[in-house]
Amino acid sequence: MPFTPYHFGPCGFIGLVFRKWLDLPVLILANIVVDLEVLFMGLYGRRFPVHRYFHTFLIGLAVGLLWGAAAYPLRGIFKRLMQAFRIPYQPSFWKMLLSGVLGVWLHVLIDGIYHWDIRPFWPARTRLLYHLLTRRQIEMVCLACLAAAFVVYMISLGLSYRRKAGQTSGRDILN
Fold it and tell me: Residue 150 is part of which domain span?
């Protein structure tokens, strides 16, 4: 599923629920980073299989760590973006590394179930995840996670407005 919204649901949901320990932008964008392999394979005429090394847990670990480290200088941009969405954001280097790895691994997990050419446990040749769920089931799980992420976001947004209203009325009482 290169560059599809299906990957954003599980990462968005997990990132919002565990944002105290994870970096949401890094987690979500890790799904694009891992699919750069598919893009480059296609650009260089490689037709089959396009999912190779980035789509493994072993190499995915390195890709996630590199992405987390590369994203660290972008934390100011991410902070402004998160403020625009009114999502509390406290970046740290370690959260970004962890989020990069987890984001890539979630992508590998989903694609390992969905695509037959992925060997997530490389160098082992086994495909233990393939067809653990049907394609339709994995799509539905990803869409359900996207809906759940939206609900969590709306609750967070409501709490944010409630806190802000409480702070404002508290100041008015003191003045």
Answer: 5-168
